[in-house]
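Students often ask why inverse folding is considered easier than folding. One informal answer: many sequences map to the same fold, so there is more than one right answer. In these notes we will look at a single instance of the problem. The structure comes first.
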């Protein structure tokens, strides 16, 4: 299995899962062009997405490929549905939220948390922050030559964004990872610089999950985005 990044949809396994899901959903031969995505959205919104979500989150579900985890299949289905702008029922969004501890990297956890919080669920597609394999290789070859590309495996912050919103610059949680609070000055994990919490209690309560993906970083990862001022970028660098 080839893995080219730390994010979601950055391994052959994730794309195999997505291919299996397209077969389950009757979306054979789907491409990335707008008409194909629109057709996929209409089909998913016809009821089949909810049916397949119910099937996959059921304890009796067995993935087509034996080593694939049921939790991973559910997450890939959720991300796929967001990428085509399908409507995900609230109970299935809630089911995805509790799967964060099963993700093996901090980057993947932040991508899932951000998508679940900011996906508009109104037909607007979600733009995933992970580059595919070809784009990752191409970016590495032009490292330092583009204002808005760090030459790594992520687009901008890597968190992803709604197609009608600007991407963000900083790869760090936008809310308390324990309770979801966004207001006030959130505390930052001093080790990974990526996790944020509204207070020490929330940080302590989340430690059983966070400790599995927390690793030391010297600074926050940031990437310029179109339209960002030098003052905004300087503020991010100072964090």
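Output (designed amino acids):
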């Amino acid at each position: 299995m080839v893995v080219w990044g730390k994010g979601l949809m950055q391994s052959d396994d994730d794309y195999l899962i997505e291919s299996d899901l397209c077969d389950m959903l009757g979306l054979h031969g789907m491409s990335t062009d707008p008409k194909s995505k629109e057709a996929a959205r209409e089909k998913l919104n016809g009821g089949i997405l909810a049916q397949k979500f119910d099937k996959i989150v059921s304890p009796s579900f067995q993935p087509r490929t034996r080593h694939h985890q049921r939790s991973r299949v559910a997450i890939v289905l959720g991300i796929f549905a967001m990428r085509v702008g399908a409507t995900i029922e609230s109970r299935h969004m809630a089911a995805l939220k509790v799967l964060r501890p099963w993700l093996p990297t901090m980057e993947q956890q932040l991508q899932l948390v951000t998508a679940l919080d900011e996906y508009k669920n109104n037909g607007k597609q979600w733009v995933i922050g992970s580059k595919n394999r070809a784009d990752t290789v191409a970016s590495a070859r032009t490292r330092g030559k583009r204002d808005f590309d760090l030459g790594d495996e992520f687009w901008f912050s890597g968190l992803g964004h709604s197609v009608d919103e600007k991407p963000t610059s900083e790869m760090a949680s936008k809310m308390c990872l324990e309770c979801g609070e966004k207001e006030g000055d959130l505390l930052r994990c001093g080790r990974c610089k990526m996790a944020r919490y509204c207070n020490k209690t929330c940080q302590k309560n989340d430690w059983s999950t966070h400790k599995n993906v927390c690793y030391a970083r010297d600074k926050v990862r940031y990437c310029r985005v179109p339209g960002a001022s030098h003052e905004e970028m300087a503020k991010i660098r100072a964090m």
